[in-house]
Amino acid sequence: MLELDDIQRGVLSPRPTPYAATYLVFRVDDRAQGRELMRRAAASVTAAADSASPLGETWVSVAVTFHGLAALGVPRASLDTFAWEFRQGMAARAKTLGDVGESDPAQWEAPLGTSDVHVVFAALAPDTARLEAALDRARLAHDQLPGVVAIWRQDCCALPTGTEHFGYLDGVSQPAVEGSGIGASNRLEVPLKAGEFVLGYRDEIGGIQTPQPEVLGRNGSYAVFRKLHQRVAEFRRYLRENATGPEDEELLAAKIMGRWRSGAPLALSPQHDAPDLGADPQRHNTFLYGRDDPAGFITPSGCHIRRANPRDAAVAGEVRLHRMIRRGAVYGPPLPEGALEDDGADRGLMFAFIGAHLGRQFEFVQSQWMNDGVFFGGGSARDPVTGSHDGVTGFTVPRRPLRRRLSPLPRFVVTRGGEYCFLPGLRALRWLGGLQD
Predict the structure, then answer these.
(1) Please, are residues 40 and 46 in contact by the beta-carbon 8 Å criterion?
(2) What is the pLDDT of residue 264?
(3) Where's the DyP dimeric alpha+beta barrel domain (predicted)?
(4) Sorting pLDDT into bands at 50, 70 and 90, what band is 51?
């Protein structure tokens, strides 16, 4: 049984729709005040067991980096029990993640990717009014603590279209977690063991991962935060230049993503968009590939959603060992509809990936599924949307009698920063607050 009263609600609960969100990053300069921040944060965080927070579908999550745990005075013997990827940090893993060239950590927004990032607060609400109320509650945790310094902030808000900046419905697919009480978005998927997402429980291969001491590690999760800048005008131009007309442009957009812009999957509506299907959470994610589309003639094997989750398709490896919970929040203003030139505004997604195995979940998917194609027989082809493209490799649409090859892909998404974090359970937050030198 999952101890839902000790797990942060942001680990398991889907975001509200619509939503507003804010990420706050802090540096701990004074250890005692950092511990006081943890004590106060424990009172601000909503547990997964709570049906609703005092502000409705609104909650605050608190995460700590490896450098943050060290700044709080967690003993070295305990730090050494955390995942080695977490101990290294995201910036040190850049080459593996495809964060090279324009996405290299040397180009990231300061202070992201540095040892100054210690604590991350993430507040989420259905609208800006309730978000500000949540931030007011969170402010009580760090107010009048001069030894805890706010060093970065990113505000996010759902676009009026309900999509992300490339124009697709987002946040459609999430795995089902045993014991969470939250239903599967894909009713054909067997729920995954809780230990795939929450530390201290059995995972899909029967293991139990728990940083020590148990009061610190149990009921926690690892979280990957990434700021991803989207080149919307370049994406639009690519579709326009490779299409024969407006209808073909939308078909190419669907083949690249694996879904029509409305969220309707090609697997269930291969010939045309179906907005009613896209708007139906009971249907728009309930499908498989292996029986009806093994070769990818309907949903290309190299498209974004099939790479991110091959479901039952025949690929190298066991898909269930690489599933993650994904959270995406839009930042920045939309590019005006139809515009094909960049206006210079910063826009994109703040992405959070949650799991218990950084190596075989996020890092595996990012390096093997997003930035390689060997697992499905696609050679060196990369994800057409988020891959670290170099302008050499294009995208192939399987079809009979001849497959369709598109022109070389530019990089549409640039990493602007990020970090590996630990989302402690509520008891662990109190334990961190009670540390003594």
Answers:
(1) no
(2) 98
(3) 21-137
(4) low
Over residues 412-437, the mean pLDDT reads 97
pTM above 0.70, yes or no: yes
Q: Indicate the average pLDDT of the chain.
A: 95
The closest alpha carbon to 86, from 101, 68, 104, belongs to: 68
Number of residues written out for the chain: 437
SS (H, E, C) the chain: CCCCCCCEHHHHCCCCCCCEEEEEEEEECCHHHHHHHHHHHHHHCCECCCCCECCECCEEEEEECHHHHHHCCCCHHHHCCCCHHHHHCCHHHHHHHCCCHHHCHHHCCCCCCCCCCCEEEEEEECCHHHHHHHHHHHHHHHCCCCCEEEEEEEEEECCCCCECCCCCECCCCCCCECCCCCCCCCCCCCCECHHHCCCCCECCCCCECCCCCHHHHCCCEEEEEEEEEECHHHHHHHHHHHCCCHHHHHHHHHHHHCECCCCCECCCCCCCCCHHHHCCCCCCCCCCCCCCCCCCCCCCCCCHHHHHCCCCCCCCCCHHHHCCEEEEEEECCCCCCCCCCCCCCCCEEEEEEEECCCHHHHHHHHHHHHCCCHHHCCCCCCCCCCCCCCCCCCCEECCCCCCEECCCCCCCEEEEEEEEEEECCHHHHHHHHCCCC
Which residues is 149 bridged to in the sheet?
27
Percent of the chain residues past pLDDT 70, beyond the cut: 99
Distance of alpha carbon 259 from alpha carbon 117, whole angstroms: 36
Residue 321 to residue 60: CA distance in whole angstroms = 28
Half-sphere exposure of residue 160: CA atoms within 13 angstroms, side-chain side: 5
